[in-house]
């Protein structure tokens, strides 16, 4: 074999490591897997806890109480049922039929109010009080990921400034793989909680390092907007596939199956990172980045972060509360609890890819303002649905609007750092991820408690009004001024441009390159 042919794979690998597109592919896949794991648990956890804790407790009590007296007189309310949620019944005494058991359960205890308003034969789950408490517990479990990510993100931002993006990206993969395997084999609420919190650590490494890497390799503002739109498409695709995939696999295969599939995909992503990202290479930023606390004092960055937080808070509150509300009011089977999020996921995928390009033309501030208003209106319409088909419109509008906000705000964060601070992106995308996580931490943790206190419709009204009220603040991002230091640099390089940057196209001069001196001499 000729020596040249032997070096072809190494040449391809070297070319791949220098390719911006392959970096985009790696970030796309990492966000895809992270958000598949984020949403695959949404339809699984409420029904899994109901089956293992509520039905398990009642079925274990039933045999001890059915022997002394006939079931119609002294049996507990749920002694003759194994699972209404699965539309299946079990004969406890060994002599009554399925229909007689259901009728006996319903009529033998006139003094006790029914657990749910629809009749048991309709497929609605029993145990109204258990479901009300489960709102809070499921909300806390879902919020644990975002709360942990909220704490870890600033540290990851500092770490990327010191050692680069390659190693944190690979650390994120390893932790995500461990979390996925733990989800597959966890059988209690405590273990599920630990697995969800561990996912938050891995997600922090992957998202901060991935978005910072994209911002560093796509320095042109227009190209960066397109790249962010594609990367957020991976996030959207993960959300799109996760919930329906989890509900169908759980219904027909078992709880562990969706997580084992995700663990296999995570291994493929790790192999891709080993080939492309050089995780053994330490490449710190040549320029010291702006400190996190300095960025947090920038009002324009705060406005952008607030838009990310409140727009995503709506869907974050829906994740733990909508499936339980559907179980109570629509008597939905397991597979529908995940499919209900399908319109939001599809429209989010369309919105991020469409407005990754359009937002740069129509103005990202305007795109975000319209998006937040539509988020609020869509949330107000969710409680009006009477069945799963009534959720298509509100959820579709919600996903499309959040796609508008995310695809606009992520490039704006990089733009604001270029315009007003040092062009190092680890810290600013740590702030963006913190804002995103605050929505997903506050939303589920408070959403369950609010539903228990005032009901699901009022929760949607509160969050919808907050989004509509916040939308006008996006107007301040229309023409953010440059900092004095940036103006001083510009005055040295190009004396004719001493005003603040007011157009998106002028960002192409950042970061300043070696060609800037030549252009300045030619201009003179």
UniProtKB/TrEMBL annotation:
<feature type="transmembrane region" description="Helical">
    <location>
        <begin position="365"/>
        <end position="385"/>
    </location>
</feature>
<feature type="domain" description="Major facilitator superfamily (MFS) profile">
    <location>
        <begin position="72"/>
        <end position="482"/>
    </location>
</feature>
<dbReference type="InterPro" id="IPR011701">
    <property type="entry name" value="MFS"/>
</dbReference>
<protein>
    <submittedName>
        <fullName>VMAT1 protein</fullName>
    </submittedName>
</protein>
<dbReference type="GO" id="GO:0030672">
    <property type="term" value="C:synaptic vesicle membrane"/>
</dbReference>
<feature type="transmembrane region" description="Helical">
    <location>
        <begin position="230"/>
        <end position="253"/>
    </location>
</feature>
<keyword id="KW-1133">Transmembrane helix</keyword>
<dbReference type="GO" id="GO:0042910">
    <property type="term" value="F:xenobiotic transmembrane transporter activity"/>
</dbReference>
<keyword id="KW-0532">Neurotransmitter transport</keyword>
<keyword id="KW-0770">Synapse</keyword>
<dbReference type="GO" id="GO:0005335">
    <property type="term" value="F:serotonin:sodium:chloride symporter activity"/>
</dbReference>
<feature type="region of interest" description="Disordered">
    <location>
        <begin position="95"/>
        <end position="126"/>
    </location>
</feature>
<feature type="transmembrane region" description="Helical">
    <location>
        <begin position="259"/>
        <end position="279"/>
    </location>
</feature>
<keyword id="KW-0812">Transmembrane</keyword>
<feature type="transmembrane region" description="Helical">
    <location>
        <begin position="397"/>
        <end position="417"/>
    </location>
</feature>
<feature type="transmembrane region" description="Helical">
    <location>
        <begin position="171"/>
        <end position="195"/>
    </location>
</feature>
<dbReference type="InterPro" id="IPR036259">
    <property type="entry name" value="MFS_trans_sf"/>
</dbReference>
<feature type="transmembrane region" description="Helical">
    <location>
        <begin position="300"/>
        <end position="318"/>
    </location>
</feature>
<dbReference type="GO" id="GO:0043195">
    <property type="term" value="C:terminal bouton"/>
</dbReference>
<feature type="transmembrane region" description="Helical">
    <location>
        <begin position="21"/>
        <end position="45"/>
    </location>
</feature>
<keyword id="KW-0325">Glycoprotein</keyword>
<feature type="transmembrane region" description="Helical">
    <location>
        <begin position="338"/>
        <end position="358"/>
    </location>
</feature>
<dbReference type="InterPro" id="IPR001958">
    <property type="entry name" value="Tet-R_TetA/multi-R_MdtG-like"/>
</dbReference>
<comment type="similarity">
    <text>Belongs to the major facilitator superfamily. Vesicular transporter family.</text>
</comment>
<keyword id="KW-0968">Cytoplasmic vesicle</keyword>
<feature type="transmembrane region" description="Helical">
    <location>
        <begin position="424"/>
        <end position="443"/>
    </location>
</feature>
<dbReference type="InterPro" id="IPR050930">
    <property type="entry name" value="MFS_Vesicular_Transporter"/>
</dbReference>
<feature type="transmembrane region" description="Helical">
    <location>
        <begin position="201"/>
        <end position="218"/>
    </location>
</feature>
<dbReference type="GO" id="GO:0015842">
    <property type="term" value="P:aminergic neurotransmitter loading into synaptic vesicle"/>
</dbReference>
<dbReference type="Pfam" id="PF07690">
    <property type="entry name" value="MFS_1"/>
</dbReference>
<dbReference type="InterPro" id="IPR020846">
    <property type="entry name" value="MFS_dom"/>
</dbReference>
<keyword id="KW-0813">Transport</keyword>
<keyword id="KW-0472">Membrane</keyword>
<feature type="compositionally biased region" description="Pro residues">
    <location>
        <begin position="111"/>
        <end position="122"/>
    </location>
</feature>
<feature type="transmembrane region" description="Helical">
    <location>
        <begin position="455"/>
        <end position="477"/>
    </location>
</feature>
């Amino acid at each position: 074999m000729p020596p040249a042919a032997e070096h072809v794979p190494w040449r391809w690998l070297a070319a791949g490591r220098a390719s911006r597109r392959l970096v985009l592919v790696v970030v796309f896949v990492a966000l895809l897997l992270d958000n598949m794991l984020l949403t695959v648990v949404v339809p699984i956890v409420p029904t899994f806890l109901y089956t293992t804790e509520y039905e398990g407790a009642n079925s274990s009590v039933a045999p001890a109480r059915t022997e002394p007296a006939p079931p119609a007189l002294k049996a507990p309310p749920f002694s003759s049922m194994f699972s209404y949620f699965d539309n299946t019944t079990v004969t406890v005494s060994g002599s009554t039929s399925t229909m007689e058991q259901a009728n006996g359960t319903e009529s033998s205890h006139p003094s006790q109010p029914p657990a749910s308003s629809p009749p048991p034969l309709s497929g609605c789950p029993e145990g109204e009080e258990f479901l009300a408490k489960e709102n809070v517990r499921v909300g806390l479990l879902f919020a644990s990921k975002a709360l942990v990510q909220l704490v870890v993100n600033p540290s990851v931002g500092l770490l990327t400034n010191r050692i680069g993006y390659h190693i944190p990206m690979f650390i994120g993969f390893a932790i995500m793989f461990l979390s996925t395997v733990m989800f597959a084999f966890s059988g209690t609420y405590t273990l599920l909680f630990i697995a969800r919190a561990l996912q938050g650590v891995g997600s922090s490494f992957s998202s901060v390092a991935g978005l910072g890497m994209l911002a560093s390799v796509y320095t042109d503002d227009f190209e960066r907007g397109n790249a962010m739109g594609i990367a957020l498409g991976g996030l959207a695709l993960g959300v799109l596939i996760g919930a329906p995939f989890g509900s169908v696999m759980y219904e027909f295969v078992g709880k562990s199956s969706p997580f084992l599939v995700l663990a296999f995909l995570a291994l493929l992503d790790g192999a891709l990172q080993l080939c492309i990202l050089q995780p053994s290479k330490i490449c710190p930023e040549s320029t010291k980045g702006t400190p996190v606390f300095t960025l947090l004092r920038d009002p324009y960055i705060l406005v952008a972060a607030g838009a990310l937080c409140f727009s995503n808070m709506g869907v974050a509150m829906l994740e733990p509360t909508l499936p339980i509300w559907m179980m109570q009011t629509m008597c939905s089977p397991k597979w529908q609890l995940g499919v209900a999020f399908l319109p939001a996921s599809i429209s989010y995928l369309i919105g991020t890819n469409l407005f990754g390009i359009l937002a740069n033309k129509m103005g990202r501030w305007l795109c975000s303002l319209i998006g937040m208003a539509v988020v609020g209106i869509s949330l107000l319409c969710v409680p009006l649905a009477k069945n799963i088909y009534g959720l298509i419109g509100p959820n579709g509008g919600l996903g499309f609007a959040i796609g508008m906000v995310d695809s606009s705000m992520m490039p704006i964060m990089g733009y604001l750092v270029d315009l007003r601070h040092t062009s190092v992106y680890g810290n600013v995308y740590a702030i963006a991820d913190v804002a995103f996580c605050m929505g997903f931490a506050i939303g589920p943790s408070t959403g369950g408690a609010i539903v228990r206190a005032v009901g699901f419709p009022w929760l949607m009204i509160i969050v919808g009004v907050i989004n509509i009220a916040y939308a006008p603040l996006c107007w301040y991002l229309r023409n953010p001024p440059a900092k004095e230091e940036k103006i001083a640099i510009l005055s040295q390089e190009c004396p004719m441009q001493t005003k603040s940057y007011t157009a998106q196209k002028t960002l192409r001069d950042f970061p300043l390159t070696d060609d800037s001196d030549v252009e300045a001499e030619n201009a003179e």
